[in-house]
């Protein structure tokens, strides 16, 4: 039985890794369409892996965003804040959703797997060298998205209160900050009476140096001209589970050619890296 997972997707990348040097756009990579339930451009997710009907080993259903850069910086995230997982209900709105239609056409029972793991396929190019990382979303989501948003608005509120000389109670401040904690509130278009334009706030997320896996000073283990799978590895059970799944996808000879090691994140514990040269 054909199985689908981020591990099988990584194998597709390994089998065609030379293409990463040749292609101009990351979306031009020859992804195995048999693994995918949807493929889009400019809409999250760029790619989604099919769901497995038999989920004893792999659930499938992972969502993937492509991040391409002509430097060793992760390109900014427009509108969608990076996260380790997303609820499919929040991505699919209404029966006319293109994503929903594509997934159903691929044979998925879309809402049978409500919470989807998120991965980011990151390519950086600098001075003729290339780094590719297929990285789990928790590498970027080191605090929960809601907390990130609310703390950011708390900073704005503190600045405005200081500038204006106004004061509010701590309890009222908590209420205001908690209101601005859901990203969906910003994605809706707002219509104001008598205004000739509509307004929608969009969030732009930029990766700090400590979260930039392409940064050679922060993460020297991610070498030039390599392809890397970066998995969560916060305890020995998680590490062993990841290694066992790799063994189900790759032969022993292929595994022996990988450099497999643990990478220490500056804010979020350890990650397991499976690295191969391009």
Total number of strands? 11
Low-confidence stretches: none
Strand content: 15-25%
Structural class: alpha+beta
Name the average pLDDT.
90
Task: Characterize the largest beta sheet: strand count, sense, and whether it forms a barrel.
Answer: 9 strands, mixed
Question: How does this model look, in words?
Answer:
- The protein is 28% helix and 22% strand.
- The chain has 278 residues and is an alpha+beta fold.
- The radius of gyration is 21 Å and the shape is globular.
Summarize the structure in short.
This protein is an alpha+beta fold and 278 residues long. It contains nine helices and eleven strands. Strands 1, 2, 3, 5, 6, 7, 9, 10 and 11 form a nine-stranded mixed beta sheet that branches. Strands 4-8 form a two-stranded antiparallel sheet.
Reconstruct the topology from this structure.
Blueprint: H1 6-15, H2 19-22, E1 36-39, E2 47-49, E3 63-69, E4 77-78, E5 85-87, H3 88-91, H4 98-105, E6 115-126, E7 129-136, H5 145-164, H6 170-179, H7 184-187, E8 204-205, E9 226-232, H8 236-249, H9 252-256, E10 259-264, E11 270-277
Parallel strand pairs: 3-6, 7-9
Antiparallel strand pairs: 1-2, 2-3, 4-8, 5-6, 6-7, 9-11, 10-11
């Amino acid at each position: 039985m054909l199985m689908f997972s981020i591990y099988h997707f990584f194998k597709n990348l390994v089998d065609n890794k030379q293409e990463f040097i040749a292609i101009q756009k990351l979306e031009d990579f020859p992804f195995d369409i048999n693994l995918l339930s949807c493929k889009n451009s400019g809409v999250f997710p760029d790619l989604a892996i099919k769901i497995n009907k038999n989920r004893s080993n792999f659930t499938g259903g992972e969502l993937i965003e492509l991040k391409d850069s002509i430097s060793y910086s992760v390109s900014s995230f427009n509108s969608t804040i990076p996260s380790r997982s997303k609820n499919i209900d929040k991505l699919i709105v209404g029966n006319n959703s293109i994503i929903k239609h594509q997934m159903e056409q691929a044979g998925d029972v879309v809402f049978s797997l409500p919470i989807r793991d998120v991965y980011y396929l990151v390519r950086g190019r600098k001075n003729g060298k290339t780094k590719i990382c297929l990285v789990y979303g928790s590498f970027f989501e080191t605090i929960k998205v809601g907390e990130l948003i609310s703390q950011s608005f708390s900073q704005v509120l503190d600045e405005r209160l200081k500038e204006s000389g106004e004061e509010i109670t701590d309890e009222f401040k908590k209420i205001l900050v908690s209101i601005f904690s859901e990203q969906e509130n910003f994605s809706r278009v707002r219509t104001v009476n008598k205004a000739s334009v509509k307004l929608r706030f969009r969030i732009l997320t930029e990766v700090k140096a400590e979260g930039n896996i392409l940064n050679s000073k922060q993460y020297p283990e991610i070498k030039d001209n390599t392809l890397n799978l970066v998995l969560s590895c916060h305890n020995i059970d998680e590490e062993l589970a990841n290694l066992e799944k790799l063994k189900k996808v790759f032969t022993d000879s292929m595994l022996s050619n990988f450099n497999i090691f643990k990478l220490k994140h500056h804010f979020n514990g350890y990650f397991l890296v499976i690295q191969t040269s391009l």
